[in-house]
Amino acid sequence: MATTSEKPARKPNAAFMKPLTPSDELAQVIGSDPLPRTEVTKKIWEYIKKHDLQDPKNRRNINADDKLRPIFGKDQVSMFEMTKLVSTHLK
Fold this sequence. Notes:
Elements: H1 14-17, H2 24-30, H3 37-50, E1 61-63, H4 69-72, E2 76-78, H5 79-87
Antiparallel strand pairs: 1-2
């Protein structure tokens, strides 16, 4: 008899793991290979850190450079807003 406190192992959400194709604008930042959302976010953060695009006064804000501006549609976004804007560039 199993106890109720035992939980089944959590499976990763298939929607997060499904490879998505980046738009032409996003491909200039992360490459054109289809990637799961988790990898897309990871690669964007690598790009942001490599190019020192976090706002020095408020590290939660990302300053767009010439490659990120077409994706964000403005000069600065919050890290929470960024994921929503990036998702519109994935098919």
